Recover the amino acids of this structure.
């Protein structure tokens, strides 16, 4: 006995009707044939990382225009543009690294981690250097634009689901 009731046997048994016992466990995972995998892949909507990067750039530039119109400040506009660059340039680095062909799954995982760490490092470095690069930096303008650019990833996922 456990706190949640009697223990369930492992591996779970098939039901008396010869099928899977749906009350206890999920059905086993079935490996797909290459033809089935190709058919499934063709039904799934794909979204290019380059398109997401472009969407981030456009959203950031629109945000910078809104900040320019709202504040009429050149410093705030340059700060907003630097916020766009602090997202787009490191993501450009990641996308470039991730779109290269890799021979194995382990190599792809190591490659992803490496490029992701480089992206994070580049983002941190750009934010640390921001006050030196942009004289009179407007942190609110930079951070608002940065947040807008980052949130585009969620919009891209939602857009992909509707296609």
């Amino acid at each position: 006995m456990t706190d949640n009731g009697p223990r369930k046997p492992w591996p779970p048994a098939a039901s008396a009707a010869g099928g899977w016992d749906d009350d206890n466990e999920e059905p086993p995972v079935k490996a797909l044939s290459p033809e089935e995998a190709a058919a499934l892949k063709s039904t799934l909507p794909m979204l290019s990382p380059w398109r997401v990067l472009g969407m981030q750039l456009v959203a950031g530039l629109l945000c910078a225009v809104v900040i320019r119109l709202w504040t009429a400040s050149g410093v705030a506009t340059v700060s907003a543009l630097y916020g766009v660059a602090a997202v787009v340039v490191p993501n450009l680095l990641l996308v470039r690294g991730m779109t290269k062909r890799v021979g194995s799954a382990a190599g792809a995982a190591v490659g992803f981690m490496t490029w992701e760490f480089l992206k994070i490092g580049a983002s941190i470095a750009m934010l640390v250097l921001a006050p030196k690069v942009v004289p009179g930096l407007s942190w609110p303008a930079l951070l608002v634009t940065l947040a807008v650019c980052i949130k585009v990833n969620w919009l891209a996922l939602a857009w992909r689901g509707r296609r």
About this structure: The first helix runs from residue 34 to 43. The chain is about 70% helix and 0% strand. The mean pLDDT is 82. The helical segments are 34-43, 49-71, 74-98, 105-133, 139-162.
